[in-house]
Amino acid sequence: MPARTCALLALWLLGGAAADFGPTRFICTSVPADADMCGAAVAAGGADELRTNVLQLRETVLQQKETILSQKETIRELTTKLGRCESQGTLDAGGGRKQASSGKNTMGDLSRTPAAETLSQLGQTLQSLKTRLENLEQYSRLNSSSQTNSLKDLLQSKIDDLERQVLSRVNTLEEGKGGPRNDTEERLKIESALTSLHQRISELEKGQKDNRPGDKFQLTFPLRTNYMYAKVKKSLPEMYAFTVCMWLKSSAAPGVGTPFSYAVPGQANELVLIEWGNNPMEILINDKVAKLPFIINDGKWHHICITWTTRDGVWEAYQDGTQGGNGENLAPYHPIKPQGVLVLGQEQDTLGGGFDATQAFVGELAHFNIWDRKLTPGEVYNLATCSTKALSGNVIAWAENHIEIFGGATKWTFEACRQIN
């Protein structure tokens, strides 16, 4: 019967992958079933052809080994050059990115950050400090003090000087000057000044805090991050109706983000106020949604209130004391569940966490109050106009010792209606 000869067997034994080297062929001859196939193949005159195939196979394997060794050497050389370029902080031809030299600093580990990104972070820090000074200026106008004014002038002078240093550094980078050593020295010098400035402003803020009433403050969220937020120390009880009111100021686009979110075990969207992307602001109750008529991202202070009752899921929305919308069938007959986590400035995907920077609130927030009933239009108007008859929330009342801040969020003195816009 026909059988494969030892030529194919030899190919298998030598390489096991003849198909990797191009087309192959079978060398066949007819031999008795109990005969020595290799011996028969040789006797049949296949020895020369077998020898030729084996030699060709050996030559191919050697060529492959030489190619692999050559490629390894090339990779080794490129890796060595790349490492040398990174350590020297030179510009690579492909991406034009410049690596800063190593060193820890008060802004975080910027040693592996491109120079342009480093300057951007410094610029954001300066802008945050300027905002804090503007708030101190408002406070000093309300509470005139020669010491406060002199400190404010000194800090403003320091900020102006730092801005000139950052601008000078930008110009140097554009001209292609300055080595990695100079980069490090200048950055550390600027960051040292920023640290000192932070400390001086914090001292002023501390003195300001000691003198203000417990409810005369606001929260500021200057950047869209997944770590900057405030947490209300108190949770909510079970509620069959509620009113939530607050003052908001934001110019963020697209969308101001999430002013507040309340999550309970098993439901991260138990009660959420969010304006995300190009969508209108929405209120979520047990993951059910109603679109709200608010337009607040104009950089001005606005007072907003939302009322809701579980009976038929009826809701109303007020902006600056005036009702602008209403509806029904919003999570009807679903009571707000108790023992959850109430967060200001972030949307929760898990209980107390799972924040997404794209949904973070950017702006200022104050006088966040919650009641376990539906307020009347007159009561809402009193809140929006800062009437002496304005009520504080009977579930959550705005008080500084009830709010914890994290990730760089700050507290400022704020008096509604007196400072707005």
From TrEMBL:
Needed co-factor(s): Ca(2+)
Keywords in alphabetical order: Calcium, Coiled coil, Disulfide bond, Glycoprotein, Metal-binding, Signal
Domain Pentraxin (PTX): 215-417
Segments forming a coiled coil: 119-165
GO biological process: axonogenesis involved in innervation
A single GO molecular function term of this UniProt record: metal ion binding
PANTHER family: NEURONAL PENTRAXIN-1, PENTRAXIN
Name the record gives this protein: Neuronal pentraxin-1
Organism the protein comes from: Erinaceus europaeus (Western European hedgehog)
Origin organism lineage: Eukaryota, Metazoa, Chordata, Craniata, Vertebrata
Recorded name of the encoding gene: NPTX1
